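Task card 7
Instruction: Convert sequence to structure tokens.
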Amino acid sequence: MQLTLRQQLTRFSHLLQSALFPVLEEELGELSDTNKRLIAVLNLIPLARFIPSSRGWMGRPSKYRIAIASAFVAKAVYNFQHNRDLLDRLASDRQLLAICGWKHPWQVPHESTFSRAFAEFAEMQLPQFVHEALIRETQKDRIIGHIARDSTAIAVRETVKETARQRKPKQESKARARSRNRKPRKARQAGDPPTRLERQRTMTLEEMLAELPSHCTSSAKVSSDGHNQYWSGYKLHLDVADGQIPISAVLTSAHLHDSQVAIPLSTMTGKRVTALYELMDAAYDAQEIMDHVRAQGRVPIITPVARGRKSKSEIAPNPTRQLSPAEEERFRERTIVERTYGRLKDEFGGRCVRVRGAAKVMAHLMFGVLALTADQLLRFVSDSS
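Output:
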């Protein structure tokens, strides 16, 4: 008889509690809650499957790549800001040392070796592949009700790449002041070149991702209290399933509009899981996005945008469509993506990024997403029991 996801995770959790934890506590002493969570995460994710083996190759062998990768997962679980914090903890915590795969402190490589190994993991997209394998293995027999989509700001300490579209702050403020009296955009004509959303409808996933900008830029957004927030860095775009389980992730430049990543994310998610509804806010209100979601057999629920300019006689323009009461009820589930971002930034290192370059920033974030996904899967079992 084939076991359901809940039954498989329940059996896995039972084995941890009844078999693995007692054996480790006999050897290492009583385990802390954080170490237990780290052990559960490392045993759930297929990390060793994607670590290349150096046996049979000429030259100096790579040192403890599996242990180093496990240490970077531990860095996310412990929410350490720097590699130095991780190494100091490994030197003083015998339990963490053994969990990562070393027997003695002198076996832990130098900090420079950790940096080189992290660069290798970033180049080969190790955490992305491990996360995809984890999602495919745990969600393949599950029908997901809702996929919530949104982005979050990722601030980094990196030089902003100058582009032709960037303006000086004074010029930008004047341009915003002039935009109040600017006329609405003209409707697109038949001879106009296709937009990115229109091009994405006929592109492969690899072509769509390659076209998205991923360099460090500056951007701004309006916070929930109405104030402008500015940052330099990137945007992380996530698709999150019921249970706050991240399904797909894409990193782009900070200035890129959220709608430009909707079709690639929807395509990526469709290849990994089976879902029924996709929930998005007003930033994703575009006909091309809705058509793409429907073409994949899912139902888009997007907050409608009030099109057009306000007139003096009306308080606000009327939107062209309205959400039905049933859609409004389902749209309330979109908060799962916001809670996921909150956990990623507060508990798994997403708020403190100390690496440079899109590949390394994505690897740092994906180690956190990977640990968060495994932790949420285990919570999914404990909450349902």
